[in-house]
Amino acid sequence: MTITEVETTITAKKVLCCKVPTNKGERIRKILLDNNELNKNYKLKKEDNYLFIPIISTDETEIDKSIMENLKKIYNNIEFIEINMLGNPKTNKLNFREYLLKNFKKEIENGAVVLSYDIIGDIVIIQISDNIDENIAKKIGAKALELIPSVKSVYRRKSEILGEFRVRELELLAGEYKTLTMYKENGYRLWVDVEKVYFSPRLGWERKRIMEKVKPEDIVVDMFCGVGPFSIACKNAKKIYAIDINPDAVELLKKNIKLNKLQHKIIPINNDIRKTEVKGNRIIMNLPKFAHLFVDTALKMVEKNGIIHYYTVGTDYNEAINLFKSKCNCEIVEKRIVKSYSPREHIFVLDIKIY
Ligand SMILES: C[S@@+](CC[C@H](N)C(=O)[O-])C[C@H]1O[C@@H](n2cnc3c(N)ncnc32)[C@H](O)[C@@H]1O
């Protein structure tokens, strides 16, 4: 495999855009931005009452199913159209995704190189399989460092998410070896250590959804809180119990509570949730792979008429629905795909009212 040198300046070019009504534009743009789908090399175009928002995918089918579902929730008749666009002079250069598409088409097709990546503060985590030659992997890392704005370190995923703490092994490909970074989403900030704790920027939209549901009288139990993104998103509640078994996560959670000035509301607890006695009317169960093992614990914690936000992995909603129906009197009040998990599986959330 060889890396061909690619042109770094682009002039007028056909670019795939989402065509949406102007009044939906900002919400659609935010979803695209959060999911690394917004093509920042081009300016948004306005025509009549429509906005054309440039995206990075070159074909509608490349867009992740969960992103598409979220876009369609904002505007169901979304259209994808290629139009001629002039590059934005400030950022008129090839983006990392375009670089991958030009140089690694075959590897992308066979899954050895993945187009999507995570940006957490000034850290980027990309997905390249072990089968890719080490020197090529390092070159890709160096390109990510060059082409993704404000990045200091580029890692690649070295393992699945592992163990009780749900942490993945990483390998530094380019930039400096540092794992602590600050991440911003939905108006709050979080310290994250990508080597010691679980964190996914792809849940930002989901946290916004929960944020909008929280009521001032709510008592929240965030059963698997990590560094606290869901707990902090629930900042309008009366009280939030934030529990995690990973001591490093709880140390960062404490810093994040202070950073967001929420000491009067969030109670950090470093413990196994099964040994923790708290109660609330809104329970967050963000441990998708193993949440089914903690349903009895959640049912002990939830108050009558309370809501459980249940995250799970699978191919459809049925397993989760049957599990809850077999254990309690309940109603599914909302359900949606949160993100893809594997080629066939998704992470789902079900909002379940417990009577
Ligand atoms: C998928 S992560 C979610 C973290 C956080 N909610 C977020 O969105 O970033 C699951 C978390 O559950 C914690 N955990 C696993 N088993 C636990 C248990 N028995 N009691 C409390 N926390 C647990 C892990 O340490 C991990 O931080």
UniProtKB/TrEMBL annotation:
Keywords: Cytoplasm, Methyltransferase, S-adenosyl-L-methionine, Transferase, tRNA processing
GO term, biological process aspect, one: tRNA N1-guanine methylation
The keyword tRNA processing appears for this protein: yes
Catalysed reactions, semicolon-separated: guanosine(37) in tRNA + S-adenosyl-L-methionine = N(1)-methylguanosine(37) in tRNA + S-adenosyl-L-homocysteine + H(+)
Annotated SAM-dependent methyltransferase TRM5/TYW2-type domain residues: 117-355
Name of a matching Pfam family: TYW2_N_2
Enzyme class: transferase
EC number: 2.1.1.228
Molecular function GO labels: tRNA (guanine(37)-N1)-methyltransferase activity
SUPFAM superfamilies noted in UniProt: S-adenosyl-L-methionine-dependent methyltransferases
A GO cellular component entry from the record: cytoplasm
PANTHER family: TRNA (GUANINE(37)-N1)-METHYLTRANSFERASE, TRNA METHYLTRANSFERASE
Protein name: tRNA (guanine(37)-N(1))-methyltransferase
